[in-house]
Design goal:
The complex is a heterodimer of chains A (568) and B (665).
Chain A lengths: L1 E4 L2 E4 L6 H7 L23 E4 L6 E2 L10 E3 L3 H16 L15 H8 L23 E3 L9 H9 L5 E4 L6 E4 L15 H5 L5 E3 L3 H9 L4 E6 L20 H11 L3 E4 H22 L5 E2 L4 H10 L13 H17 L6 E7 L3 H6 L13 E4 H10 L21 H4 L6 H15 L17 E8 L2 E9 L1 H12 L7 E5 L17 H17 L9 H11 L5 H7 L8
Chain B lengths: L3 H4 L14 H7 L7 H14 L8 E5 L2 H5 L2 H15 L4 E5 L11 E4 L6 E3 L7 H10 L8 E4 L19 H4 L17 H6 L4 H9 L2 H11 L11 H9 L7 E6 L8 H8 L1 H15 L3 E7 L3 H16 L15 E7 L8 H8 L23 E5 H13 L1 H5 L9 E8 L5 E6 L4 H8 L9 E6 L5 E4 L9 H6 L8 E6 L4 H15 L5 H18 L8 H24 L3 H4 L3 H20 L13 E3 L9 H5 L5 E2 L7 E2 L9 H5 L5 E3 L1
Parallel strand pairs in B: 1-2, 6-7, 6-9, 7-8, 10-14
Antiparallel strand pairs in B: 1-3, 3-4, 4-5, 10-11, 12-13, 12-14, 15-18, 16-17
Classes of the chains: A alpha/beta (568), B alpha/beta (665).
């Protein structure tokens, strides 16, 4: 159909919104509450446009085009309304841009600049609110909240958690957990998806930058950093690089400049996880254990099942997540090898995830000593690098340290949803047949869909599998498992949609296009590596021979496996 | 007790054995297998329940919420006690509200062979005399009499008495929707049937296809009575044209405007009318499920509706296979928790679904995607209550009343500074002046009329110069108000219009759902601007704060315009109307507050200044002793004076001065 936007005729498909058509035509319309891929709520009214024949201004994000529609996106009336709306928001927002974590990366700040707000004309009462700092993962600052509702939508629609919602009415309206409590006291899984969609600084990670600096500056501490698979394809964005740039070598270099003593690769832990998890799977398949086996790499997902489906916990793999396995080994195997006392070692995990901050503090994972002492997100590491005056883009690539620097393509793909599954299959095939797969790429579990399914037959054993990301998608499957319906033998679950590449600790504003580029980069790393299955990781195999014994054996269990708690 | 159920003993129409002619049988008789004997019983029973031919005296007590608030339950108890004392066999029926709230408690007495008497302002202590005179001595207590109903057969057993319909409050009214209110027993389905109830439904189901019903509705010109005035038939047509295995019909009974109570009165006093309208609507669009979304603050209405639904089901007028047509419709009541915004249709739907009541953008309109994503028609109580008349009398007859664009009658709730408070039903096209002065009796205590707020917080305050406008949807918009649900709040010269705007803005601000920015933040800033206008200069500590007050006045219109232009739902889009209309008609009052720091109506306390008239003051020292702030100084027997900086405007001095020496500016 034909529509006219700003006196320009353009074609549109029935059902498209004005915003979609305008974007395609290169006409910018500002948005705040709009989230690609979600049903529009039309709450912020920043995207209003003038439509001929309509008395009021129309929210372009929610309004479908109609044949012959005449739209003005830039009339004086529209600009005046938008500016007034931005002014109203600013009047109820703390004027502390200089000290805000989102300074320079704030959508409200951008809008204020775009509409030339020079004055707080509608000054008056400020709603205020107390900052919630109680959780190990998320800080919530209601004073900065502009009530766009994106976090609420993500929490309900994508994650099916519903930890936060709107409360009260009128000027007192706020987004809050039940009974205005703390996120720490409710069934929040700390996936952090709310943070990545927050346009302002109302939701942010609990920062560990300070304690990380303290550890680095403490000469008695031997600081060992490890980097998760998904960090290396995203960190570059924080320094203006193209989404999907692979910056592994630069991160290693940067961490050394920061003063970290050893830089290991969490991919090593990922390879180890595969050996353990594939063994666990085959064990359960052969010996009639609880099936389907559910993966345990995603701590947000683990907390979710602990809260909402605790009766299904026996299905969850007892494997620790890769960085926890690696942390445990750093403080045992590595400590013994180097003669450094475990208590002097400080393990710093660089993760795309904020649930890992919570995970690192689980009592089960700090029994003798904490496997991991502090977790930094991709964002925090970027800030520390900037803080240290390191010109990231000009760094030369450096290599990881031994003995936990080696990794395979199987570990690399952990970063994308479906990767753990694919990696496990590569090794399971080897365990069952003694041979590698002809084609290691198992495409049914690749891509950006929330639920991906497949079936493999190895040595006469058929395994039905699924890779699920985004917690809303796992709910229906868990309900079926609960009712006794057995659809799969092995399910990979990632709390965040599309997995760690879109984790709660990744650079803010990860639109679907950026996520896709990160995913492509992940698979490119895999393709470029000579070894693409975990059992080919020589360092890992040496570790078993020298130290751990058999996969799923006694020592492996002690160091690499954990248990869960009911939180319902 | 007799009932239609008993009379039809050998031809009883139930859910299991529904009969298409049930309603016709009652009214016109001699359909299918009705015997002459049955017909006789039927007619006798009808005359009896219509109080046309009855044996025992009947007393009807107005026991709607307004009656109850005036002590109707005490009057009711007193009547029962007195009857026992007098050993009289009298039927006492609680009825609904006849609309004349300021005359409550209303007690009607109907003696066999005499026209029905309507007594007003009855208190429990009046009861013995009233019953003694009327029931025993068969004479009328003239000072309590409001009027009489017309004699059934022209035989007025009471002699010359004024007719109720000639009382000024009723004379200009045209009761079509409220016709049964306060007249019948609202809990009696038989009385509703005997007065022609369910004829519209019977006609629709037996003689018309759904699309014919919709056409009839379109032809009638009935427009939504909840505020927007969207043509009801058109709305039904959209829903009818939707293909879906499930459709819903919803009655919006979340009446929340301050000063609006017409929906409550209809539900309490004539609940079957609402149900009948809904069933017709459901038949027209093909809905098998319906909800009445009623605020929990209306417990009596909810109780009556529950009984009504049960009775209608028992008579086969609701539920499975209605009147043997094969059409089934189930109705549920959903209690609202009292959020004003839930009167907005999409918020209301969210609330029924169990979600927080927040509006969503339209399109899609509920007629396309409504409750649980299914096509849904939402009309308010008064709209549904109009529907049976349209079907029963035909569209042409309905459309004969009203103006070109607004057909039928409209119910208004009169309150505020007006002599006759209550509910009135007038044809579209009468002027506000007729409603306020002829029916409402103007402002009490000889005060001068200043304005009438129409349409609640979404409407506007209209001054004397525009109240001759004939009432219809378009005219009211032209003069800066809106029909709204029909609340009319009258203001006299002692009302401050800035204060009125502030009151409505406070209301809107605390009832905004908080979803969209212009409504949530904008109305708060408007409210703050108004608060600055009415606050004392003493609260302005710096010149900047005084500047804010002036700036506010400059920004007020711009802000109002943006709120109106950009808000998500009707609540926000109309939120600034009270400010805009008072600015339009009473700008001088705003300017007096802003520049002169005075409230012309003498209402904004912080702007008042207390003075002592030195001529009148005798120096009695009473005021000085009463002043809690020690703000009054003066020697005995010499004129006192007030230190304005200390005065907190508590009014103690003026109230206690015996010499009228203290005056306020």
């Amino acid at each position: 159909m034909k529509v006219t936007i700003n006196n320009k005729e353009c074609w549109a498909n029935p059902g498209e919104t004005i915003l979609t058509v305008a974007e395609r035509e290169g006409i910018q319309i500002p948005t705040l509450c709009y989230l690609k891929g979600f049903s529009p709520t039309g709450s912020c009214r920043v995207c209003v446009v003038e439509v001929e024949g309509q008395r009021n201004l129309i929210p372009s994000c929610a309004f479908p085009v109609a044949e012959g529609m005449v739209v003005q996106t830039n009339s004086p009336r529209v600009r005046r309304a938008r500016k007034t709306i931005v002014e109203l928001l600013i009047a109820n927002h703390p004027q502390d841009c200089l000290t805000c974590v989102r300074n320079g990366n704030c959508e409200l700040q951008d809008l204020a600049a775009q509409y030339g707000v020079r004055d707080v004309r509608y000054a008056g009462e400020i709603r205020g609110g107390k900052i919630d700092v109680a959780s190990p993962s998320i800080e919530r600052d209601p004073e900065k909240c502009i009530l766009c509702g994106r976090c609420v939508r993500v929490c309900h629609e994508t994650q099916n958690v519903g930890a936060i919602d709107f409360v009260r009415r009128g000027f007192k309206t706020a987004v809050a957990p039940a009974m205005d409590g703390s996120l720490n006291a409710i069934a929040c899984v700390f996936c952090g998806q709310c943070i990545t969609v927050c346009p302002v600084g109302a939701l942010r990670e609990k920062s560990n930058e300070k304690i990380a600096w303290e550890a680095i500056n403490n000469s008695r501490k031997h600081v060992v950093a490890q980097i998760a698979p998904a960090v290396r394809v995203a960190l570059g964005e924080e320094f203006g690089m193209e989404p999907g740039s692979v910056v592994t070598g630069k991160i290693v270099a940067a961490l050394r400049r920061l003063g970290v003593d050893r830089v290991f690769d969490t991919n090593f832990g990922a390879d180890l996880t595969i050996i353990e998890e594939a063994s666990e799977l085959l064990n359960r398949v052969k010996n009639g254990g609880k099936l389907p086996l559910l993966t345990s790499c995603s701590p947000g997902w683990v907390k979710y099942i602990e809260h909402f489906y605790p009766d299904l916990l026996p299905h969850v793999s007892s494997c620790k997540s890769p960085h926890e396995m690696e942390g445990a080994l750093i403080k045992s195997y590595y400590a013994e090898k180097t003669g450094i006392a475990a208590e002097d070692i400080y393990v710093l995990s660089i993760m795309p995830c904020i649930a890992k901050k919570f995970e690192a503090q689980r009592p089960e994972l700090k029994e003798k000593y904490a496997d991991v002492d502090a977790v930094l997100t991709t964002r925090e590491l970027a800030r520390m690098i900037k803080n240290a005056g390191i010109d990231f883009t000009k760094l030369n690539d450096e290599h990881f340290d031994d003995p936990m620097g080696e990794s395979t393509g199987a570990a690399a793909i952990f970063g994308a949803a479906g990767g753990v599954m694919e990696a496990a299959l590569r090794t399971a095939h080897f365990f069952l047949t003694g041979k590698d797969m002809d084609n290691v790429e198992f495409t049914p579990v690749r891509g950006l869909q929330g639920v991906k399914e497949g079936e493999v037959t190895i040595a006469g054993i058929t395994i039905k599998i699924a890779a699920v990301s985004g917690l809303k998608n796992i709910g229906t499957i868990l309900d079926k498992i609960r009712s006794g319906e057995n659809l799969y033998q092995f399910i990979e679950v990632m709390a965040c949609p599309n997995g760690c590449i879109n984790g709660g600790g990744q650079p803010i504003n990860s639109d679907p296009d950026k996520v896709r580029k990160r995913m492509e980069a992940i698979y490119a790393i895999d393709r470029g590596l000579p070894k693409r299955a975990s059992h080919h990781n020589e360092s890992v195999m040496r570790l078993y021979k020298e130290y751990l014994g058999d996969p799923n054996g006694h020592r492996a269990h002690e160091l690499l496996h954990t248990h869960y708690v009911e939180r319902s | 007790m007799n009932s239609y159920a008993k009379i039809f003993a050998n031809c009883w129409h139930t859910n299991e054995k529904p009969c298409a002619h049930f309603v016709d049988c009652i009214n016109d008789g001699q359909k299918c297998h009705q015997s002459a004997e049955t017909r006789k019983h039927l007619d006798a029973y009808k005359h009896e329940i219509l109080l046309e031919d009855h044996k025992k005296p009947v007393i009807l007590v107005g026991m709607g919420t307004c009656g109850l608030a005036n002590g109707a339950n005490h009057v009711h108890a007193a009547i029962l006690a007195e009857l026992e004392k007098l050993h009289l066999q009298v039927q006492v029926i609680p009825t609904g509200c006849v609309g004349y709230c300021s005359m409550e408690v209303i007690v009607d007495i109907k003696l066999p062979g005499h026209p029905r008497l309507c007594y007003c302002r009855v208190k429990p202590e009046d009861v013995p005399l009233l019953l003694q005179k009327t029931l025993v001595e068969k004479s009328v207590v003239a000072e309590k009499l409001l009027g009489i109903y017309p004699a059934v057969d022209g035989n007025n057993g009471w002699g010359e008495l004024p007719l109720l319909s000639q009382v000024p409050f009723f004379a200009k009214q045209k009761k079509q929707v409220l016709v049964n209110c306060g007249v019948i027993d609202p809990e009696s389905i038989d009385q509703y049937l005997a007065r022609g109830g369910y004829k519209g439904l019977s006609k629709a189901i037996n003689k018309m296809t759904p699309s014919e019903v919709v056409k009839e509705m379109i032809a009638s010109g009935l427009r939504g009575r909840g505020g927007g005035g969207f043509p009801t038939g058109k709305k039904w047509e959209f829903a009818l044209n939707q293909q879906a295995e499930q459709k819903y019909i919803v009655c919006n009974a979340d009446e929340g405007d301050p000063g609006a109570f017409m929906d409550r009165a209809v539900m309490e006093s004539d609940p079957h009318r609402v149900i009948e309208g809904m069933v017709i609507g459901a038949y027209a669009i093909g809905a098998s499920e319906g909800y009445i979304y009623c605020r929990a603050e209306y417990p009596l209405a909810i109780r009556r509706l529950e009984k009504t639904i049960a009775d209608a089901k028992a008579y086969g007028l609701l539920g499975k296979n209605i009147l043997g047509s094969g059409f089934s419709f189930n109705l549920k009541i959903k209690k609202g928790a009292g959020a004003f915004v839930c009167g907005e249709e999409t918020a209301l739907l969210h609330s029924i679904e169990g979600k927080r009541g927040m509006p969503r953008p339209r399109p899609p309109f509920p007629a396309v995607s409504g409750l649980f994503g299914k096509p849904t028609v939402i009309n308010n109580v008064e709209t549904f209550a109009n529907v049976p008349n349209v079907l029963r009398d035909g569209a042409a007859s309905y459309a004969a009343i009203g103006t070109a664009g607004s057909k039928g009658t409209k119910i208004f709730a009169l309150s505020g500074k007006i002599s006759n408070t209550g509910l009135v039903e007038v044809p579209m096209g009468v002027s506000l002046r007729e409603v306020v002065f002829d029916i409402g009796g103007g402002c009490p205590n000889n005060k001068k009329f200043k304005a009438v707020q129409i349409g609640g917080p979404s409407g506007g305050a209209l001054p004397e110069q525009v109240i001759d406008t004939p009432i219809d949807y378009e005219n009211l918009k032209t003069v800066g108000a809106m029909m709204g649900s029909g609340g009319l709040v009258v203001m006299d010269e002692t009302t401050c219009m800035v204060d009125v705007a502030k009151y409505f803005m406070t209301f809107i601000q605390s009832e905004s759902c908080g979803k969209c920015i212009p409504c949530r933040e904008g109305t708060k800033r408007l409210l703050e601007i108004l608060e600055r206008l009415t606050a004392s200069y003493r609260s302005e500590k710096t010149p900047d704060e005084a500047l804010l007050r002036f700036q506010g006045m400059v920004y007020m219109e711009r802000l109002s315009e943006v709120i109106q232009n950009t808000s998500l739902c009707g609540l926000g889009q109309t939120a600034a109307n009270p400010v805009m209309s008072t600015l339009r008609y009473f700008r001088d009052e705003y300017e007096a507050h802003l520049y002169d720091r005075k409230c012309p109506a003498g209402l904004c306390r912080e702007l008042l200044t207390y003075h002592i008239d030195t001529e009148k003051c005798t120096g009695c020292t009473v005021c000085a002793r009463k002043c809690p702030q020690n703000a009054i100084l003066g020697e005995k027997q010499k004129a006192h004076y007030i230190i304005d900086e200390k005065c907190i405007r508590c009014d103690q001095c003026r109230a206690n001065c015996k010499f009228d020496a203290i005056f306020v500016e």
